[in-house]
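User: Fold both of these, please.

Assistant: Here is the first one.
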Amino acid sequence: MADKQDPDDPKYDWLYSGRSPESDEGHQQSGDPEATQRLSPADPEATQQWTPPPDGFGGAPASEEATPPANADEHTQVLKVPPRQESESPRPAQPAGPTSFGGTYDAPPAGRDSQSQRSEPRFATAASPTSPPRQPPATRPSRPPRRPRRHRNWWLRGILGLILVWVLFLVAVPIWAFSQITNVDAEPSGSRPDDTPGTTYLLVGSDSREDLTEQERGDLGTGNAVGQRTDTIIVLQVPSGPGPNVLLSLPRDSYVDIPGKGQNKINAAYAFGGPELLVATVEQNTGLRIDDYIEVGFTGFVDVVDAVGGIRVCPTSPIDDPKAGNLKMDKGCQDVDGNTALQYSRSRAFGNGDITRAQHQREVIASVGQRVASWQTVVLPWRYFTINKAGAESLQMGEEVGPFDLARFAWAMAHSSGDDAKRCVIPIRSLGASTPAGSAVLWDEEAAQDLFGQIADDDTASIECTESGQ
């Protein structure tokens, strides 16, 4: 480029003096040192150029100015730049800038660099093909990948899983069993006693043979009696206070007033009107309001005893009763299965008839409750399932009985064999009184009403009773 050439080279004088190379050549060829202008005859209107003598470029004194000819008024004049006077204050030294047309120029002040840099657009420029690859910005050193944890606690997780499954099993089985229980209408209509403190259950053992086959009747020694009757009637009182539970047996031959039927044996109420009339009869003669009705059948009772692996009973005298399935037992404690336990609770081959029978029934119920509440029932899944299944098949309960009511009943029965329960027979005046209904049991009305009053007052701790009722 031109600004890279040497400005002092005579060949480039025309660039700085306004002369053209052609005029210089013409001037040199003509040999006319005084020639100052060249007119182009072809163009009369052309601008005329005045050229100073050669020595005026560099040889004339710096103070002299070239005087154009008189006829050069209309010519374009090219004046030399006078040299800088020494008297002028010198400008600060600046680095020499590059040459260009018209001479050299000074570099811009240093202060403008930062401003020009700030004014530059701030965006990335494309890298040249020869540029080295740009390195990514430095980042934090990443953590090394975690090693997979060794399943050292797999056995603990397995145990927790088994516990969870076991808890679900313990909850699901009773819910299923409860759904299999038959419901009956046991709530009487009409006037009823006031609510009794605590919870009052009426536990009934049915001696109906309707659902038994001929083989079962022979094995159980039930005979072929027809109709529905109650073999066991027990009032279970669970107080709301600190007193003990009370198991109160009502002999099946008790002579009482049956609502709408007159006086008869109490078990006849079930035959006349089923659970509803039996509940009304008990309420009318005791003054206690029955909260929940629970009924157990023959076969169900046997299945429950077998489900718990049998029970232990302790007869106080030898038993030989052909009417109770040909039952033969020695005196003393012994383990029995379901069939033997049923016959033992139904036998009447004793001097006081129903009194000893009621004692045996309470003994069997308490023994079953103890076995059901043992740790084996919870730990052994087949036993837990079998007990729930047998109980569901053997029970009938009132429509008002809920799952929590049934659970409280089972808990109360399981805790009715020790010192935390009292086992009583209604006070009796006569065991074999002659009545229109035959030989019957007569209650001691005054003592019986005192007993019922203590239960109604939730004062079971003050009850004094005997297992013989006398």
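And the second sequence with its predicted structure:
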Amino acid sequence: MQLNKVYLRIANERYHFLKFILEGYDGLCLLSTVPGDKGCVCIRYPENYGDTLFQLLGNISKTITTKESTIPA
């Protein structure tokens, strides 16, 4: 099965929170850290779960980022 990837920068202390939330959606995606890049994670997901994943990430985005990890408008 081909998995899509999305890379996110999150607050280091929120990694376990994000992992806990994503594991609640059994089979939705795989979460891993990016070696050597503190605060960067990779989420791999099947294409047909993309809508669900991005809706979920949008809903929790303010709780997993810090001011330093957000992109200026």
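The chain has one domain: 3-61.
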